[in-house]
Design a protein that fits this description.
Elements (H helix, E strand, L loop, with lengths): L6 E2 L2 E2 H15 L35 H7 L7 E7 L2 E9 L6 E8 L13 E8 L2
């Protein structure tokens, strides 16, 4: 791998993965802390949504990107950026074989703007420690 090929938006892919994992841990409330509005049906008059509907369980990943990584695992983190001069998505999922690791995929974002239902092109796949 060339030095520029392991960079996503100016930083190493490994550093970006660590940042996404840290952000994911920060978003999850600790199980022993009270969570305001969770588990209650607090709605405003005329609203059909509860407070729970506003929480996002995982980052949005376009269908063509999800097809490209071919993983049914929950997304731990994702972001858009530039990889090897191309607009791309960085998607992090649990490693299928080793729960102490994660797998990072960089997928060309070109598929998002195409009218077809084809999967995106995987530009890079790498496994990292989950730490």
């Amino acid at each position: 791998m060339t030095p520029s090929a392991d960079r996503f938006s100016g930083d190493s892919v490994q550093s970006q993965v660590k940042g996404l994992l840290a952000a994911g841990r920060a978003r999850k409330p600790a199980s022993n802390e009270p969570r305001s509005g969770i588990g209650t049906e607090q709605t405003s008059p005329g609203s059909t949504q509860s407070a729970n509907t506003l929480l996002q369980s995982q980052p949005p990943v376009p269908d063509c990107v999800r097809q490209a990584i071919n993983s049914r695992e929950d997304v731990l983190g994702s972001k858009t950026g530039v990889y090897a001069g191309k607009s791309a998505y960085l998607v992090v999922v649990p490693d299928a074989d080793d729960k102490a690791r994660v797998t990072a995929y960089v997928v060309d974002a070109k598929c998002v703007h195409q009218q077809s239902d084809s999967a995106g092109e995987v530009l890079m796949t790498q496994s990292f420690p989950r730490s």
